[in-house]
Amino acid sequence: MVDKTSDSGRCPAVVLAGGRSSRMGSPKAAVLLGGQTMLDRVIERLSPQVASIAVNLNAHSGGALPSGHPAIADTIPGLPGPLAGVLAAMRHARQVAPGASHVLTVPIDAPFFPGTLAARLQGALIVGDEIAVAWSLGEMHPLFALWPLAIADDLDSWIRTDEKRRVRAFIARHASVAVDFPVVATKAGPLDPFLNVNTPQQLEEAEEWLNRLEDSAI
Ligand SMILES: Nc1nc2c(ncn2[C@@H]2O[C@H](COP(=O)(O)OP(=O)(O)OP(=O)(O)O)[C@@H](O)[C@H]2O)c(=O)[nH]1
Ligand SMILES: [Mg+2]
């Protein structure tokens, strides 16, 4: 059986922010929601859950961000798609947390993701070497996942050969467990905790949810 976690009992995490943000029109990491950048918001939500946080910025040449978290480039430059970021996350985790069996990934554009994300994904591992993936409302959220570091070499060769590089297709190659997260009950109705903010209009909607949520802890 593989260790479910790092030595601290918490896993390392990587925020996936290496996309083009073409629908938003400007980098989503720097977009403001409730007066805070999306990156700061995601880091704030993730910090109590994990052992360490790095940020995948695709072609970024490395170094630290203003928040002090390391920025990591894709390990295979020029291959589009989020799996390039997942691979970079696996390689990074192997370096910074040699005892860890998995790395958690969280995309930059889902500002209300659960505060129990890491604990519930880790707790769902059965044998210990599976991918644990978040679901809500009957839909898979494949970038909210705990990835076993042992499958990094398989991902490395698979993304070089499979042109579509679909995240779901890669998950289907391996043992996985699904973890269902409930909607968040608010006075204004149910909120999908994985609400995705890709466009300026969705950003406005997220701002409205934030105002409604002011009194309710999520
Ligand atoms: N490293 C890396 N990450 C990516 C790439 N494309 C998408 N991602 C990440 O995958 C996640 C989901 O992708 P999208 O929601 O489509 O984000 P996006 O590609 O920035 O936005 P669009 O250009 O509007 O599709 C985001 O967290 C991105 O940062 C890529 O080419 N390389
Ligand atoms: Mg998105």
Give a description of the structure.
The protein has about 220 residues and is of the alpha/beta class. The protein has a single domain (about 10-215), classed as Alpha-Beta Complex (Spore Coat Polysaccharide Biosynthesis Protein SpsA, Chain A). The protein has 6 helices and 11 strands. The protein has a 7-stranded mixed β-sheet with strand order 5-4-1-6-8-7-9, with helices on both faces. A hairpin with a 2-residue loop joins β2 (about 30-35) and β3. α2 (about 80-95) runs antiparallel to α4. About 40% of the residues are buried. The mean pLDDT is about 90. Magnesium ion binds near residues 107, 109, 196 and 198. Transfers a GMP moiety from GTP to Mo-molybdopterin (Mo-MPT) cofactor (Moco or molybdenum cofactor) to form Mo-molybdopterin guanine dinucleotide (Mo-MGD) cofactor. GO terms for molecular function: GTP binding; metal ion binding; molybdenum cofactor guanylyltransferase activity. Its EC number is 2.7.7.77. This is Molybdenum cofactor guanylyltransferase.
